[in-house]
Amino acid sequence: MQWTVVVPLKALARAKSRLSDTAADGLRPGLALAFAQDTVAAVLACAAVREAAVVTDDPLAGRELAALGARIVADEPGDGLNAALVHAESVVRRQRPGRALAALNADLPALRPAELARVLDEAAAFPRAFLPDTAGIGTTLLAAAPGHALRPAFGADSRVRHRASGARELVLDAVDSVRQDVDTGDDLRAALALGVGPRTALVAARLLIPDGPTG
Prior knowledge:
The protein is 38% helix and 16% strand. With 215 residues, the chain is an alpha/beta fold. α1 (28-44) packs parallel to α2 and α1 (28-44) packs antiparallel against α8 (198-204). The N and C termini lie far apart (46 Å).
């Protein structure tokens, strides 16, 4: 099964506010863009993916991610993440009604194409499926087979909400790179330990990232 992967990305100036303890205001937009670039590059390198569609109204992000080969979809109707994903789904499905669709977080800088392929292959067995994040609270990937609506419920406690919506929770080992999103300094340290893509590595080298708590 071939997939279109939809990657939503908010305006860079507003992205990653929870990283304020790790990255200064002037560095966070560049860090968010690097996360997205490494995520999209890994998506496009995945054998199971036919197309990456990035939902954003940020001009810089749009240019940089289009240069990698992503399709850019306008962030409409400007009513938050889930509404943007529903809009992107309608755009993709109008042109490719038989394509399987997955929504994937833009902050997966350690993403490995082979691990993403494994998750998508597992998701293909169900009408809808999702992968929880490393913290076990959120969702990093939500998938829908052809003929089935995505019905995104991202946000607080999205793992519970996606499960309640009838989506199958995927329980897989050795797919840490697909689960490790980055919202906090601890998340960034965990992603760096997994091994991030080159753009994130370059920006992260400019940060002073203290070791996590010990003992």
